[in-house]
Design a protein that fits this description.
The chain has 151 residues and is of the alpha/beta class. The chain has helices at residues 14-25, 39-49, 65-75, 93-99, 113-120; strands at residues 5-10, 30-36, 53-57, 59-60, 63-64, 80-85, 102-105. The chain has one domain: Rossmann fold, CATH 3.40.50. The termini are far apart.
Length: 151
């Protein structure tokens, strides 16, 4: 039996939660175990369901995403974090680079999420090994290698 990769989605926008859900559900070997619009609900569910990967917006209701990641890592140090943000969002790049495994532009880099999830997947159908955690320096915050603030 193949282990399914468990994904949890955190975004205050129902539109973006559905959008990310569709991206994830199109992939074999990956399932969504829950979603939340705010940090309080997210922490409760994450504590109980133990996701492998969390897709979350930099801004969440009741908390800034970086603070939420710190709390998530205390509860369950396993999940990988794909953080998404709009270009208009201002954020502390240093804090994000210490906490998130990936930082993507929500509107222009969302299509990279399936490839990232495939790399994290335990499913042998992809023929890939599970990668080591990635750590970004301040200049390497997006997968494109450019800062989202530089556009």
């Amino acid at each position: 039996m193949v282990k399914m990769l468990k994904v949890f989605i955190i975004d205050e926008s129902p539109f973006f939660r559905r959008w990310f859900s569709r991206l994830v559900l199109a992939l074999p070997g990956i399932r969504i175990i829950g979603e939340a619009s705010d940090s309080f609900s997210a922490l409760k569910i994450i504590r109980r369901k133990r996701p492998d990967v969390i897709i979350m917006d930099v801004k969440t209701q009741l908390s800034f995403g970086v603070n939420l990641i710190g709390n998530i890592r205390k509860l369950n140090p396993i999940p990988k974090v794909i953080m998404v943000a709009s270009e208009a969002c201002s954020f502390n790049r240093g804090k994000i680079s210490e906490k998130a495994d990936y930082l993507l532009d929500k509107l222009t880099e969302y299509e990279k999420i399936p490839d990232i999830l495939k790399r994290f997947s335990f499913a042998p159908i992809y023929g890939l090994k599970r990668p080591e955690p990635l750590r970004f320096g301040p200049a390497d915050l997006s997968m494109t290698g450019k800062s989202m603030e530089s556009t």
